[in-house]
Inverse folding.
């Protein structure tokens, strides 16, 4: 499975920021500020629900879901920046199933330990979505868009000396 990524371009945030970004002398620093903010919001979703697009289903024991069994998923994000945009990605093969949910099928069976000394053998497992990217239906959530737009505007202001 390929890495899961979300590409942020000036058209994804707002028409006003798009116009400002076109006038920026150096677009890469603007996209770096926006991408860094997007990355920060994404990583923060592993600790708090502030920028999650939808609530995460609780664990079986009723405690809040954290997606933090080993911490590898939350530590594996990468930011790539160019003059055309910023891309935040995660190379973990299970990143997409957590973001979007889905069914994992065995070949022919899946076997996993779900509690000390307790094993299950099943043909498939349905994973509910627990989106960590602040994106819903392919668009930034309103709260995330506001934060990212503000970061872009600050970067453009620094370039123009305002």
């Amino acid at each position: 499975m390929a890495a899961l990524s979300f590409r942020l371009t000036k058209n994804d945030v707002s028409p006003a920021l798009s116009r400002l970004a076109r006038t920026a002398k150096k677009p890469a620093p603007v996209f770096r500020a926006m991408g860094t903010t997007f990355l920060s919001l994404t990583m923060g979703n592993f600790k708090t629900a502030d920028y999650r697009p939808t609530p995460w289903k609780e664990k079986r024991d009723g405690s809040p879901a954290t997606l933090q069994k080993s911490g590898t998923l939350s530590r594996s994000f990468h930011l790539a920046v160019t003059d055309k945009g910023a891309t935040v990605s995660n190379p973990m093969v299970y990143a997409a199933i957590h973001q979007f949910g889905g069914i994992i099928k065995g070949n022919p069976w899946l076997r996993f330990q779900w509690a000390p000394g307790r094993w299950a053998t099943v043909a498939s497992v349905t994973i509910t979505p627990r989106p960590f990217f602040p994106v819903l239906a392919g668009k930034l959530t309103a709260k995330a868009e506001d934060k990212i737009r503000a970061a872009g505007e600050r970067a453009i202001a620094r370039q123009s000396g305002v």
Observations:
- The chain has a mean pLDDT of 86.
- The radius of gyration is 19 Å.
- The first strand starts at residue 4 and ends at 8.
